[in-house]
Amino acid sequence: xxxxxxxxxxxQQLISQHVNFVSVxxxxxxGSAPQEPGAKMLVTAASIDSPFEGTIGxxxxxxxxxxxxxxxxxxxxxxxxxxxxxxxxxxxxxxxxGVVQVFFEVYRxxxxxxxxxxxxxxxxxxxxxxxxxxxxxxxxxxRADWINKLPQHPALHVINNNDLQAVIQQLPExxxxxxxxxxxxxxxxxxxxxxxxxxxxxxxIIGSDSKATLLKKELQAVGVPRAITDRIQCPIGLPFGQxxxxxxxxxxxxxxxxxxxxxx
Length: 264
Hints:
This protein has helices at 3-16, 59-75, 121-130, 144-147, 164-170, 184-197, 209-221, 226-229, 245-262; strands at 21-30, 40-44, 53-54, 81-87, 99-107, 113-117, 136-140, 156-159, 176-179, 203-205. By secondary structure, it is α/β, with parallel strands linked by helices. The protein has 2 domains: 3-107, no CATH class; 113-262, Rossmann fold (3-Layer(aba) Sandwich), CATH 3.40.50. It has a 5-stranded antiparallel beta sheet with strand order 3-2-1-5-4, sandwiched between helices. Helix 3 crosses helix 9 (245-262) and helix 6 packs across helix 7 (209-221). The longest helix has 18 residues, at 245-262.
């Protein structure tokens, strides 16, 4: 099967899964370069050190192009194209002396973005369920052992980072916020940082009624307006099912869908 057919099939797969992506193609070159014109790759938000598919030669050029493609994905809410002319030596820091022209084409869908803080037992049940829906899931946790248990999926963007400000900058503005962390102290820090940057359409936090009272009181004490704390769904999820991860996950997913449909 030709690489062009594979590329086309992967594009159709990403479109059918409602995954945003960027097609990156080398369209021209002068001098020495890692790949010939026509080399292409696909980049999603989940791409870190390697593309979703294909290659434009690896190394510094490819890492630069992946980083630039991800910036384009996060920069706006419309499809766009961009062509960069890059001197491999002065712009990229390569020893090659060539110049390449790289074409970026952004494919973006109307996105339902859900950020899940925590990758523990509830998240392990919730995230695979969410990935069956037409949404993009962002999971944030600094525990590699839990992160590694999550499924690999083009609609799942894993963020392993302790820096909340850096994490929030990676999240789309319209993200629903779901916090299923280990305790309310973490929840307070997460929500405090998020609402300092934006007003999420939905905030849900796992817990009990007593936790909700304490949590909202602590958030108001650090300056979070009551207009925001009153909107927090805690306990998160619709009131049905047993207190086990699988049924908690179903109740959370149901509430997310209910809220989405009521606010479209």
